[in-house]
Amino acid sequence: MATISYKADGVFYVCCSGLFWRRAQKCTGRIYNICTNLCTDCVVGCTWEVFRVWREKYILHENDTNCVFFLAFQGEGCRTVPLSGHVGFDSLPDQLVNKSVNHGFCFNILCVGETGLGKSTLMDTLFNTKFEGDPASHSQPGVQLKSSTYDLQESNVNLKLTIVSTVGFGDQINKEDSYKPIVEFIDAQFEAYLQEELKIKRVLHNYHDTRIHACLYFIAPTGHSLKSLDLVTMKKLDSKVNIIPIIAKSDAISKSELTKFKIKITSELVSNGVQIYQFPTDDESVAEINGTMNAHLPFAVIGSTEELKIGNKMMKARQYPWGTVQVENEAHCDFVKLREMLIRVNMEDLREQTHTRHYELYRRCKLEEMGFKDTDPDSKPFSLQETYEAKRNEFLGELQKKEEAMRQMFVQRVKEKEAELKEAEKELHEKFDRLKKLHQDEKKKLEDKKKSLDDEVNAFKQRKTAAELLQSQAQQAGGSQTLKRDKERKN
Amino acid sequence: MEPQERSMEAAAVPQELPPDHGVHELFGYVGIEAVLEQMKVKTMKMGFEFNIMVVGQSGLGKSTMVNTLFKSKVSRKASQPGQEERIPKTVQLQSVTHVIEEKGVKMKLTVTDTPGFGDQINNENCWDPIIKYINEQYERYLREEILITRKRKIPDSRVHGCVYFIPPTGHWLRPLDLEFMRRLSKIVNVVPVIAKADTLTLEEREEFKQRIQRDLKAHAISVYPQEDFDEDPDDRLLNDRIREKIPFAVVGADQEHQVNGKRVLGRKTKWGIIEVENPAHCEFPMLRDLLIRSHLQDLKDITHNVHYESYRVRRLNESNRPALSSNNGLPGRDEDGDESNL
């Protein structure tokens, strides 16, 4: 079915070969190489007006199936040229795929759900293997995220699978902040990728992408409605990651209850404005199957790694006294649908959505937050770099100012200290002078005293000598007197 | 309380299990390989872009070659009546874009021609407009990439491969050839070919090739497929075989003739018909296989991962330098953004 529609902004959609819608970029209005099976006219190189007139004449209505149009690309002289032989670039998709195979794929799943809802078991069942890990306890003080990476290989495809699981979700008494670690984790992965992308020397093609591609939200099988914790968490996550809600342990719900439950859940999600991941319906090869699957959301799944013999085959199942629930039986649960959608049909789309929608949104918000903005195309582009420079200059200027201020302060302090020290010095000097004076006074006093003492000593000495002299004279005189007396006697 | 503390821990980068985990065994079919099919469908829907540049003196058969390669009239030959016969004074670059489709695979092919290259008497710096053009395309892509709101698919106008036509003198590479290839092999994938190879006999061809290879090695010119970018031993083996044959001796023709009852593309001369697609006559099939059938994606990847990245490093460092030099002459961060000699 080939239709052509024209939009007023100059962009027009052309359906090519009746198979795909292609969006032509801003076009000057020229259409090249359109041919139709209806008439022998080839309308080549005409303007849009001419084409419209021609179309009205030859195409009966919009959905005329007899028209085959070759698409027109950019309007700058871009023609579609017919090939006259086999060139060989049809191997391009194969080349691309081979390169990707050599490179390996990576896929990251985040499982959010309360403890005990069967997240690990479901992962084991989905990937048909046994991932290691112990069941978590209920006594976690906060929500943590546990992540593990595995290398899986199937035929020639190497898949680096990372499974991140919430531990302790919904176990606390106060669950207000339960969603925060999850949001922070997802943001951290985006941030890591953004940092790598903004580096000057970067290695993007070898980068291990840890961004979460799909978030499986496990809903407890109460049969009534979503818990408020679920609603709040999903609302916070819907703009950051592709959410696929699933009803866990759905063997606890009967079929009729299940339909009611699903309807209730979808209506609650819609009324709260939660955007869950819709399987893409634009590619016609998968549109049908995706469309029907979209109607079955949320999937009611059962996980089991035990194999039981049913009929004459070994199947994954859970055995109850009243019967056996087969995991891969579409009548029993939607596990097969989940596996189809998640892995076999839409894995690439999940990755693409993560990169082109969620990551771009994060990047835009983050860069705007940092102060960058796109300038209009007329003014000088390369705004990121300029803003970088401006910011850098600003930052450097600030640094310089700060340095100056610090220097000033330092100088000030030094001056103050110097003054203080000078003061102290002066004081010391004064003290010293005083002391010195005191000393001198003392010394003088002492000297005076000494002098007077000396004088006294001298005076005493003199008197002593005088006294001695006197005494010796007296003695002599006395002696001579006695001599005289003796002489007189003799006579 | 505790929750605050824990949430900080959880925001850290996830820890990987010890790498010795090895390849995990799958007990049954999961369906992971379906991702290949999904990828194929997506890329086919999006379409491919390929930009090729042909450089060489006038009269070497560039436009004919491109027409032969893509089996359609993508290039207008300068020798056709009605075209200006004047040799342009400076090297001009003319880009023509076409959309070609084969078996559901759409490709937007851009061929950039360089009339006037090497045609003047004084050919100094005739490579400058070409280098400027290539850098402009990188610049355009870089600008798109660093926008805040980016387009879903950035239009890629970067030159993925440059086919350089060597005139079939049979002697050595001329100084012009050497200069050009030396400068350009640093920023783009250069594929040298010997043009109009029907003037050389097979032995002369061999000798010419040997001399060219020696010259290239002596001047350390690394043409496509570059040795440094071989990813694994298989690649290396394959590319070694190709490297032995570089440069390919090609003949271009866009007219069909009858040979043994079949219609083949070829050149008719009095002494025989040179079949373009016959590997015994010329190496055109090898060139075509290299460029289109086997290494097209590789050309694009090397342009994107190596040449574009090195341009980006240079550009981002350049704009850092003026800011650094005004900072009291302090030495900036040690980037080894090698200032190219362009």
Which structural traits does this protein have?
heterodimer, A: 491 residues, alpha/beta, Rossmann fold, six-stranded mixed beta sheet, three-stranded antiparallel beta sheet, 10 helices, 16% strand, elongated, disordered N terminus, B: 342 residues, 38% helix, 17% strand, disordered C terminus
Quick rundown:
Chain A is α/β, with parallel strands linked by helices and 491 residues long.
| Tally of separate helices of chain A | 10
Order of helices and strands of chain A: EEEEEHEHEHEEHEHEHHEEEEHHH
The CATH homologous superfamily of the domain at 42-74 and 89-252 and 280-318 in chain B is termed P-loop containing nucleotide triphosphate hydrolases
List segments of chain A where confidence is low: pLDDT < 50 over at least 5 consecutive residues. 1-45, 60-77, 376-382
Strand content of chain B: 15-25%
Description:
The complex is a heterodimer of chains A (491) and B (342). Chain A is an alpha/beta fold and 491 residues long. Helix content of chain A is 48%, strand content 16%. Chain A has a domain at 98-132 and 140-370: Rossmann fold (3-Layer(aba) Sandwich), CATH 3.40.50.300. Chain A is elongated, with a radius of gyration of 51 Å. The model of chain A is unreliable at 1-45, 60-77 and 376-382 (pLDDT under 50). Chain B is of the alpha/beta class. Chain B has a domain at 42-74 and 89-252 and 280-318: P-loop containing nucleotide triphosphate hydrolases (Rossmann fold, 3-Layer(aba) Sandwich), CATH 3.40.50. Chain B has 9 helices and 10 strands. In chain B, the strands form 2 sheets. A 6-stranded mixed sheet of chain B has the order 3-4-2-5-6-7, with helices on both faces. In chain B, helix 8 (284-294) packs across helix 9 (296-325). The longest helix of chain B is centred in the last third of the chain and has 30 residues, at 296-325. Residues 1-21 and 323-342 of chain B have low confidence and may be disordered. Chain A: Residues 103-369 form the Septin-type G domain. Chain A: Pfam families: Septin. Chain A: Belongs to the TRAFAC class TrmE-Era-EngA-EngB-Septin-like GTPase superfamily. Septin GTPase family.
